[in-house]
Amino acid sequence: MRFMVLIADDEQLERDAIELLINSSSLPLDCIKARNGREAVELARSHSLDIALLDIRMPGISGIEAARHIKDLHPRCRIVFLTAWNSFDFAQEAIRLGAKDFLVKPTVNKEVLQLLSRFTTELGSSSERELQNVLNLFSKSFFSALRYGMVSEDDMRSYFTLNGISTDLGIAVVLEGLEESTLRLSLEQSILRKPLQACYFPSEDRISVLVFSSQPEVLAKELEKNANDRFAQPVHLGLSRPFESLQDIPRALRQASQAFNHAVALRIPLFRYDELIIGGAWPANLKTEDMEQQLVEAICKGLLPESLRLAQELLDWIAFQTDNLTEVQMTQTYEMILVVTRTVRNQVGNFPYEQPSKTNLLEMEQYLLDFIHSACAKVQEDRLDKHARLFATMRDYVEDHYAQQLTLDHMAKLAGISPSYFSRLFREYHGVSFVEHLNTVRIRVARQLIGSGMKIQETAAMVGFTDYSYFSKVFRQIEGVSPREFQQKHS
């Protein structure tokens, strides 16, 4: 990977010397040159910059001013100032702009190369991290779509080929969260055939693994036989039936997830999906309503890991119960999400949340998981201060409904407490009385409306005042002038 360096100096000799030094080195750098600050900014608009070497004193726009513009265009660009002088003011401004270093002119070749070498190393590491983050994000999105059969066979084949996979056969494994390196080592020790061909998809409470082999049945037996002894710590594993084509992978992933949930529930180290079918491991009297209630209780206690596990178990149960028939599964999943979210919102209180949509299984699952995260966070927040979130909501309510006839009694009723208690707590949390806050919001909007040319009496009614005299009095108290004086000043 190569990086772009801008050299901006009004002295041609200095520009050319630095360019020659860079081109003669082995550093992965390309150069562009500017004769002044204005030209430097123009080049920054048309090029992606990684490093900028800027002379402080240039005609027109100084190096400091050019750096401001370059930072706006390229926030991560490394800025280095070239200066023949030193001052406290320069140092202050350089620090504020995030300058990485400065070089005293005339520059010394060794210092320039050392500095640029350090920058290229940092930039290379940063690029690798960014690429890895993008790949991780892509892998997560790919897996989510894969579970619900939303990835074409061609896209699957491309993804797996990039990951060194050379067969379409294998099994899916779901197990409790381990570091990927630890998991990889344990799997390699559990499986006799080498090298191991596998794709790993970590999430918050589990890791899903696709292990590929031309003999998936043998692979499953090896895992079952050796896993308990080979894993570095006690874990729960769920094994799918073998998949014999790429199209079977989504079903295998769901099977492994269902088996994993049973391993956790039964507190056993390993559970195969076949045992669900043969042994009827789902309790005969298991009901969706009971599972929904368990999930609601966990969310309302703020138990995030338990809530996520129960949500996945419930989603897997619906898939199992409907035999993965997409339309039926979608309907039952949507109905379950409606029940859970409505019940939680009623119990947690002050929890506005967008209603779910019956789109597709992937989006509905993501909606449920996001809802659980948000709800558990609010429950935990309420534990620290049971009124903080309520009165933040009340403040926001005033911002949205200031034009209505809001009264202390109305607000107290919304909050579910007495007017006197509401009044005391509102002042405690916001430092002013409810009426003072309401008037401040209304007058803030009134200023904008009057400034835009609206008539004063129309403005008073627009922001919620029914009495013009009272509006005028409140306006003067807050603004220090009457509405008429304000209008004349801003007309």
Present the secondary structure layout.
Elements: E1 3-8, H1 12-24, E2 29-34, H2 37-46, E3 51-55, H3 63-73, E4 78-83, H4 88-96, E5 101-104, H5 109-147, H6 153-162, E6 170-175, H7 180-190, E7 197-202, E8 207-212, H8 216-230, E9 237-239, H9 249-266, E10 270-272, H10 273-279, H11 288-300, H12 304-321, H13 326-348, H14 361-384, H15 388-401, H16 408-415, H17 419-430, H18 434-451, H19 456-462, H20 468-479, H21 483-490
Parallel strand pairs: 1-2, 1-3, 3-4, 4-5, 9-10
Antiparallel strand pairs: 6-8, 6-9, 7-8
Please name the defining characteristics of this protein.
4 domains; 5-stranded parallel β-sheet; Rossmann fold; 10 strands; Alpha-Beta Plaits; 21 helices; 491 residues; 61% helix; 5-stranded mixed β-sheet; alpha/beta
